[in-house]
TrEMBL record:
Pfam families: Peptidase_M28. Residues 93-285 form the Peptidase M28 domain. The keyword Metal-binding does not apply. Keywords: Signal. It comes from Dyadobacter psychrophilus. GO terms for biological process: proteolysis. The keyword Signal applies. One of its GO terms (molecular function) is metalloexopeptidase activity. This is Peptidase family M28.
Length: 309
């Protein structure tokens, strides 16, 4: 009996205790979107600090470095939307690998950069220059999701039939530059990627809308994978494989994608996109849906890509 209880307890821990939690998501968002991160503008030392934060968590979860310089994949981003004297900015993708000894790999991603002090274009504030654009929803929320999924899959004591590549992209706000750099300079052969799942702005859940899940048309297998997925968190699907965020770079290389997004709001690309406005419980629910989808997809062979017409 004692052994049985021990086993039961062990099963509970491995199956449930590691699920993404609102507390962990909140901790990451408050770190990444704090004023000391100065809006994580591409090329700033705070942008590098945010990259270092992600790297530290990847290391803690036991992921293997899969960049070109340890966990980092450095590249130079160019600012084109506005004229600035220092238009070339150094930044990184941060890449961690969970090796399950499988042939194919699932990519999970989220961009970690934001608009800094509003001098790189695309701010919607009236006088953006010098104001910290914290980017709690865009996209500290997605990075927190990325970290929680990395923790979940690395520590659930399950050897999944696919490997995982976790990527925090740089310079998304300058035109998907980090993800494009990755797909053009992949650190793992693109034909070994099963699908890519992206999170960009998962913090402003509105129950009357639900979370949007894009990419539904990028593989004929998604309908079957979505079939049994039920959640208290409402969601709807959208066929599009490109548009708006880093999954588009993978779609352009004929890789099936998913894209999680809770929608636009009044604080979008303004200095008021702050951590206290995030719905952490709903964000955890969204990660639950994503885990369910990924686990369903892992029961199938590598998905076949279909273009969305
Ligand atoms: Zn974003």
């Amino acid at each position: 009996m004692k052994n049985y209880l021990f086993l039961l307890c062990f099963l509970c821990q491995s199956t449930f205790a590691q699920l993404p939690s609102p507390e962990n998501i909140s901790r990451h968002v408050y770190q990444l979107a704090s004023d000391k991160m100065q809006g994580r503008g591409t090329g700033s030392k705070e942008n590098q600090k945010a990259a270092k934060y992600v790297k530290k968590q990847f290391k803690k979860y036991g992921l293997q470095p899969k960049g070109t310089d340890g966990f980092y994949q450095p590249f130079t981003a160019k600012i084109r939307r506005v004229v600035v004297p220092d238009s070339l900015r150094k930044t990184n993708n941060v890449i961690g690998f969970l090796d399950n000894g499988a042939e194919h790999t699932i990519v999970i991603g989220a961009h970690f950069d934001h608009l800094g002090l509003g001098r790189q274009g695309s701010s919607k504030a009236e006088k953006p220059e010098g104001q910290i654009h914290n980017g709690a929803d865009d996209n500290a929320s997605g990075v927190a999701g990325l970290l929680e999924l990395a923790r979940y899959f690395a520590r659930n004591n399950v050897n999944e039939p696919y490997n995982f590549l976790f990527i925090a992209f740089g310079a998304e706000e300058l035109g998907l530059l980090g993800s494009r750099h990755f797909v053009n300079n992949p650190t793992l052969s693109l034909d070994k990627i099963n699908f890519m799942s992206n999170m960009d702005m998962i913090g402003r859940y509105d129950a009357s809308r639900g979370v949007g899940i894009g990419g539904f048309g990028t593989s004929g297998e998604w309908p079957e994978i979505f079939k049994e997925v039920k959640s208290d968190t409402r969601f709807f699907t959208d066929k599009a494989g490109s548009g708006g965020s880093d999954h588009g770079s993978f779609y352009a290389k004929n890789i099936p994608v998913l894209f999680f997004h809770t929608g636009g709001h009044d604080d979008y690309h303004k200095p008021t996109d702050d951590p206290e406005k995030i719905d952490y419980k709903a964000a955890a629910g969204i990660l639950g849906i994503q885990i369910h989808l990924i686990e369903n997809a892992m029961k199938l062979p590598k998905l076949k890509f279909t273009p969305v017409l």
